[in-house]
Design goal:
Helices cover 15% and strands 35% of the residues. It is α+β, with helices and mostly antiparallel strands. 36% of the residues are buried.
Length: 239
């Protein structure tokens, strides 16, 4: 794994989020201790392990690792409007007068609108793994995701979010966290964090955009979260 961190040195001059480099984000995440005991009896920093996972995930898919960020170093969009737990609107104006708007619309999941199948006891919806509903039929789906920057709409393919089900929308309780939206200080990048599922269906995902288009996603499902001994609390930074 050490080799992955050495690779990041070459991206320092290219990858910045506002004033902070990719290396700043990586190092700051690693420095937040969230110590857990692994099944082999050793003690690990869960935040560091989640970063290692994200680096491998991105590089395996041919994506630059610059999109790993420490949320505490980003700007959280805190103006939030929730309606009937089926619609969430995030909006803000950054210091440079960039206007950001993120709207997430949910629908109750209806079987007749999808093809439901099962393979190796895992639920598939429309031939894709159903994050949040591995072992049962989903109850909630993302119907629409709309992002505008200075009233200009970002092009978002439905594939960016279509297989994330049973997302926690507005409320926060126990391990369940609502959708969160962050931007780089200059508004050039937008990050949407999704928490969904329950028990063995739990997942943690990040959708990444620039001011013009969808870039990629990073997803950790129940297997990774268990391997990290994660309890998604204030000490868990993630990626």
């Amino acid at each position: 794994m050490k080799n992955y961190f050495l690779i990041t040195v070459f991206f320092i001059s290219l990858n910045t989020f506002g004033q902070l480099s990719f290396e700043n984000h990586i190092n700051s995440i690693k420095q937040v201790e969230f110590l857990t005991n692994d099944k082999d009896g050793k003690i690990y920093n869960t935040n560091e392990r989640s970063v290692q996972y994200a680096i491998e995930y991105l590089e395996k898919n041919g994506i630059k690792t610059k999109y790993i960020t420490n949320r505490k170093l980003l700007k959280e969009i805190e103006n939030i409007e929730c309606k009937d737990s089926l619609y969430t609107h995030f909006y803000d104006v950054l210091k440079n007068n960039t206007e950001i708007s993120v709207k997430v619309k949910f629908n109750k999941f209806t079987n007749k609108n999808h093809v439901i199948s099962e393979k190796d006891n895992i639920t598939y919806v429309d031939n894709q793994i159903a994050f949040g509903s591995y072992y049962n039929t989903p109850t909630l789906e993302i119907d629409c995701l709309k992002i505008t920057v200075n009233n200009k709409k970002i092009n978002i393919p439905k594939a960016a979010y279509k297989n994330f089900y049973d997302v926690t929308q507005c409320s926060s309780y126990l391990l369940y966290k609502p959708v969160k939206v962050y931007t780089s200080e200059n508004g050039d990048y937008i990050f949407i964090y999704l928490y969904g599922g329950n028990a063995a269906n739990t997942y943690f995902a990040k959708l990444i955009f620039n001011k013009g288009e969808y870039i990629t996603q990073i997803v950790a499902d129940y297997k990774e979260l268990v391997d990290w001994r994660v309890t998604i609390n204030k000490n868990f930074i993630g990626f």
